[in-house]
Amino acid sequence: MVNRVFSDSQQFNPISIKLRLCGTLIFNLFFPLVLLSLSSVLKGENPKSALSVQELKELAPLIKVAERKPQNIKIDAESWVETKADFYDPCEPWLRTPIYKSYTTWVDGGPKGKVRVDMHREVTKWINGSAPYGEEIYSMSFDGQHGRYVQAKKGEILPDKPKRIGYDAGTHWSLPFFDGEIYKFSKCFELASDPNSEAATELEFTFEEFEGAECIKIRSRLYDVTYWLDPSHGFALRGYKSIAKYPDNHEELIKLVKVTKLKEVSHGVWWPVEVVTVSKPYQDGEPWRRFVYRASNVVANNPNFDESIFTVPFPKGYRVEDKITGKNYVVDANLALIPEPNNPPK
After folding, report:
1. Which of 181, 182, 204, 263 has the highest Cβ tally under 10 A?
2. 310, 142 Cβ separation under 8 angstroms
């Protein structure tokens, strides 16, 4: 494995370096490092160490085992959004917005399996609402066949909108649940070990340091995305980067994910407990956005896990809308669903 002074994970361009310094102290600290890094690159030092076909073949089954280790997981976490006008200005601080979530999530170990989220508090921007932000409390679940969404509503409410579970649980950045632009990671290694496959030319595998960890870097030439896996922590995902390339060879960052802290929540199961995701503005004039995720408690592979948790109960007195049949019900004192008398005939 090769240690590098410079890596793609850093926010520097070794050929054209743009420094914005906040003062003499920062200049003195960073300028010698930049000169050293640039000198190393120009001299051809610290070359990338590519993985051999044999190494890819040996790693594929190991990663597949790691992907299958979690059987059930419970996560208590919170997240919020910060903004910044110029991502490349080190002097400009990130400013926290009111956008915030606090939640508990249960998953059964599969990327398309059972799941439940209890949203204790969600503050989101209210487009065309009576206030700048709206607040919600709700629960949603999928038991393998049916989904339920339960929300207590008082007064003026936010319009219904789709919910994304991955960011609320940390599953979006975890190896077992990953299903991204290319293939599942174990499949990447398996396909790339065949010299005649498209993956062998489409994907590039090298060893590279990312955020202080010696990682396996997977770069997709087709999609301009890069992933970093940490072999010393169960091949956990440590980073992700997406860029846009233009005809004039100009590159622009679209998204950068850094898993800044992992925790072994069960034997061999490493879960992201601190993550930052930076995203390019959607439109000109909008700020850069940084999504910050923090998990306070994670329990995996609990032998006493109760799968009934994946069915959110309907509380007494609630009105239930069946989105499949179009019928409406009321929950009685025995928690039974009683059809509303004004249901339209089918």
Report:
1. 182
2. yes
